[in-house]
Specification:
The protein is built from 6 helices and 11 strands. The chain is an alpha+beta fold and about 220 residues long. The strands form 3 sheets. The protein has a 6-stranded antiparallel sheet, with helices on one face. A 3-stranded antiparallel sheet has the order 4-3-5. Strand 8 and strand 9 form a beta hairpin. It is globular.
């Protein structure tokens, strides 16, 4: 686990409880509301300051910015996605497939989502078409401690939720404390107003279009 991801996992759900840390690119002090960049080359998450975040606006760079939008979705029935468990998150891959992650006491187990299931979910909730590959996720909760919820969130929220479950899980079924923590995690989620997009979701098709538009210097 990288140092940045370890710090992210320790980050509390509510802001204002963590000592200043340092930007992984320029080493300036940052607070717990700092931004994140996904390092595609090393497949690791970086904690960065606002200035360094602006250096990498979107596709075509080694570092992908992690959006900070959080949107609660109402049009998705978790059963449509074929979710066999009460808590899961779904990440689009650049090539167009979708990977489901099940957070548990040993981390997050994964499986590939059937294309038909994802197509049905997208039909029910068109906002899923805007999901940025790798750095955003569809988060689904149907656990017994609260109402069913579906959210579009930064993938870092899902990493933090996975770490929370690993930390508080006890016994075979998890124990009451872990499910209380999961409930509080979802209680703390607040919708954000999505600003104008600086990039389109990067899929295999959009990457091809981008390359076609790039002038040749040969």
């Amino acid at each position: 686990m990288t140092g940045a991801l370890a710090r992210l996992i320790r980050r509390p759900a509510r802001p204002g409880r963590l000592r200043p840390d340092r930007c992984d690119l320029c080493a300036v002090d940052i607070d717990d509301r700092h931004a994140h960049l996904w390092d595609e080359q090393h497949t690791s998450m970086l904690c960065v300051c606002a200035a360094c975040r602006l250096l990498f606006p979107g596709t075509g760079h080694t570092y992908l910015p992690v959006p900070d939008r959080r949107t609660r979705l109402a049009g998705i029935d978790p059963a449509v996605l074929g979710v066999p468990v009460g808590l899961a998150y779904f990440v689009r891959n650049p090539e167009g497939t979708v990977t489901a992650h099940y957070p548990g006491p040993a981390g997050a187990a994964t499986w590939q989502v059937e294309p038909a299931y994802w197509a049905a979910a997208t039909t029910a909730e068109p906002a899923l078409e805007t999901l940025h590959p790798t750095v955003e996720a569809l988060l689904v909760s149907a656990v017994r401690t609260g109402p069913a919820q579906t959210w579009l969130v930064p993938v870092t929220d899902c990493h933090r939720l996975t770490a929370l479950i690993r930390t508080h899980w006890t016994g075979f079924l998890g124990g009451s404390q872990v499910w209380d923590e999961v409930r509080r995690f979802f209680d703390d989620l607040e919708p954000t107003t999505a600003g104008p997009r600086t990039t389109e979701p990067q899929t295999a098709e959009s990457t091809t279009r981008s390359r076609e538009r790039t002038p040749s210097h040969g």
